[in-house]
C-alpha cells in the first residue's frame, strides 16, 4: 500500500502489538519504540517514516516532551498523532497545543485511526 512507515511509540508492549496487528492487516508498514529515546533514534535511522503514533503517558520522557523534541529537530514537520488514555475535558487541546497534529483517546477507534492515516500518508 505504502512505502512510508508508521512509527508507534508506546511503553506498553500490548498496545504496540495490538496497533501493529491492526495496521499490518490493512497493509501498513510499522516500526515501534518502547519509549521516547528509542523513538528519537529510529527517527534518525529511518528516512521513510511518514507519521508517528505517540503515547502521551510514558516514563522517562512523556509525549509532550517528545513532541517538543521532535518539533525542534529536522523532522519537525512529521505528523504526530497523540494517543492517550487521558480523555478528560481539555486533554485533546493540551495535546494539540503541544504540537500534535491529531488526538486519539484509548481504546483506539480503528476507523478514526485509518481515516487519519489516509489523510497524512500519501
Note the main attributes of this structure.
122 residues; alpha/beta; five-stranded parallel sheet
Q: Nearest-angstrom radius of gyration?
A: 13 Å
Q: What amount of the residues lies in strands?
A: 15-25%
- Find the count of extended strands (DSSP E, 2+ residues): 5
CATH topology name, in short, is Rossmann fold
Query: What is the residue-averaged pLDDT?
Result: 93
Order of helices and strands: EHEHEHEHEH
Major sheet attributes = 5 strands, parallel
Helix content: 40-55%
Give the domain tally. 1
Low-confidence stretches: none
Distance between the termini: 10 Å
Secondary-structure blueprint:
Layout (H helix, E strand, L loop, with lengths): L4 E5 L3 H13 L3 E5 L2 H10 L3 E7 L7 H9 L8 E5 L6 H7 L4 E4 L4 H11 L2
Put the structure in a nutshell.
It is built from five helices and five strands.
Can you offer a commentary on this structure?
The protein has helices at residues 13-25, 36-45, 63-71, 91-97, 110-120; strands at 5-9, 29-33, 49-55, 80-84, 102-105. Strand 1, helix 1 (13-25) and strand 2 form a beta-alpha-beta unit. 30% of the residues are buried. The protein starts with a strand and ends with a helix. It has a single domain, classed as Rossmann fold. A five-stranded parallel beta sheet has the order 2-1-3-4-5, sandwiched between helices. With 122 residues, the protein is α/β, with parallel strands linked by helices. The protein is built from five helices and five strands.
Amino acid at each position: 500500500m505504502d512505502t512510508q512507515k508508521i512509527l508507534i511509540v508506546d511503553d506498553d508492549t500490548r498496545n504496540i502489538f495490538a496497533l501493529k496487528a491492526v495496521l499490518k492487516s490493512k497493509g501498513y508498514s510499522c516500526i515501534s519504540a518502547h519509549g521516547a529515546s528509542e523513538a528519537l533514534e529510529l527517527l534518525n535511522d529511518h528516512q521513510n517514516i511518514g507519521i508517528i503514533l505517540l503515547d502521551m503517558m510514558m516514563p522517562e520522557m512523556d509525549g509532550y516532551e517528545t513532541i517538543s523534541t521532535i518539533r525542534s529537530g529536522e523532522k519537525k514537520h512529521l505528523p504526530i498523532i497523540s494517543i492517550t488514555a487521558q480523555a478528560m475535558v481539555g486533554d485533546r487541546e493540551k495535546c494539540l497545543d503541544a504540537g500534535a497534529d491529531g488526538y486519539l483517546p484509548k481504546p483506539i477507534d480503528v476507523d478514526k485511526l485509518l481515516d487519519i492515516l489516509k489523510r497524512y500518508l500519501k
